[in-house]
Amino acid sequence: MGFNCGIVGLPNVGKSTLFNALTATAAAQAANFPFCTIEPNIGRVAVPDDRLKKIAELGKSANIIPTQLEFVDIAGLVKGASKGEGLGNQFLANIRETDAIIHVLRCFEDDDVIHVSGSVDPLRDAEIIEMELILADMDSVAKHIANNERKAKSQDKDAKILLALLERIKAALDEGKPARTVNVDEDEIKAYQGLHLLSAKPVLYVCNVNEDDAASGNQWTEKVAAKAASEDAEYTIICAAIEAEISQLPSEEERTEFLETIGLKEPGLNKIIRKGYELLNLMTFFTVGPKEARAWTVRKGSKAPQAAGAIHTDFEKGFIRAETMAYDDYVNAGGEQAAKEAGKVRQEGKEYLCKDGDIYLFKFNV
Questions:
Q1: Which pTM was predicted?
Q2: What is the pLDDT along the chain (366 residues), one digit of tens a residue?
Q3: β partners of residue 42
Q4: What is the distance between the alpha carbons of residues 131 and 137, in angstroms, rounded to a whole number?
Q5: Can you tell me the distance from the alpha carbon of 299 to that of 7, in angstroms, rounded to the nearest whole number?
Q6: Of 23, 139, 169, 277, which is least surrounded by CB within 10 A?
Q7: 45 and 33 in contact (C-beta within 8 Å)?
Q8: E-assigned strands of 184-288?
Q9: Are 116 and 79 contacting, i.e. CB atoms less than 8 angstroms apart?
Q10: Is-contact 344 334, C-beta < 8 A?
């Protein structure tokens, strides 16, 4: 099961530098000119989770395998992308394939780094990209409305539901508001998701600042924070250049020491990865044994068979039950055997709703 976040922004805001830091590689060319990223670069990164190390210690596991999140570095967008300007068509096609948007905004001055609009203004930059997504969605929604009006007139129930939803989305888009601001009823969720609208994707604003502002932000990040709050969205502050430098340090001790010297408790990348995870409405469960302790990913609201399917499709098909322990019970008892003796191990069936931090042993028959 793959989940990914597309890293987007105007040219030269630090997207590729951030991507390189996230993946600790030089796979994305970070160059000082527009469109240095043409084909989207893809990298998978470990999701930080201190619980996994503790589980491995108690389980005496030989290996630790974290769950992962995929990031896609997408070509810089310019005004007019919805009409094919720059690499607009390619940008929109690439972002359509992602589950969420990491929107990088330049919040630093640097005469040596060209800004495509000639000045630093993160709110203007955010609006440029948001409007291009909205314009692309307006074309898509207009086509859907035309296709469903005929079906709705013939009393097609699903078409009627979809048409009513489309009309509400169109009204929001016409006002310059993204599709994600539209309230969606429970019976409309499936239809809404099936539209694959660009402005419906959840967004995390990443304020890229210089080193001096990495710990506390600046006047530009305050404006982005206000924008995020007004949209019930998330934002975070990083210095992509610092993050790239940290990612190249060879040891955990050196990384910790470097962070302390600049007043940071952890890399900003950890916050982006965790927020990206939350943005996608994901949660983690674990498996543990002598061979390995491993973290796995499922969407919130998943049931036990779906969690089993994250490991292998055969586990879901032949699911019988899940031997289940809560993380706190496992740790407080001191391991699996002690948790069993304390009566903390449960047998859960097909209707069990997964909880973040659950530790499973799946029973299945294929």
A1: 0.82
A2: 468 899 988 888 888 888 888 876 434 434 444 434 445 588 888 888 999 999 999 999 999 999 988 888 887 665 655 555 544 556 788 888 899 999 999 999 887 776 666 788 999 999 988 998 999 899 999 999 988 887 777 777 777 888 889 999 999 999 998 999 899 988 888 889 899 999 999 999 999 999 889 888 999 999 999 999 888 788 999 998 888 888 888 888 888 898 888 888 888 888 888 888 888 999 999 999 999 999 999 999 999 999 999 999 999 999 999 999 999 999 999 999 999 999 999 999 999 999 999 999 999 987
A3: 72
A4: 10
A5: 21
A6: 139
A7: no
A8: 203-208, 234-238, 282-288
A9: no
A10: no
Crossing angle of the two packed helices 122-153 and 219-230, in degrees rounded to 10: 20
Burial class (CB in 10 A: 0-12, 13-18, 19+), 202: middle
Q: How far, in Å, CA of 349 to CA of 360, rounded?
A: 12
Angle, helix 252-261 to helix 240-247, in steps of 10 degrees: 150
With residues binned 3-state (H G I as helix, E B as strand, rest as coil), the percentages for the chain, rounded to 5, are: 45, 20, 35
Tokens 């309230």, residue? Answer: 183
- Select from 297, 310, 298, 303 the least CA-distant residue to 324: 303
CA 122 from centre of chain = 21
Closest by CA position to 309, among listed 294, 293, 297, 300: 297
Helices (H), 179-238: 189-194, 219-230
Token pair belonging to 345: 């191990």
Query: Pick from 202, 203, 204: which is nearest to 269 by CA?
Result: 204
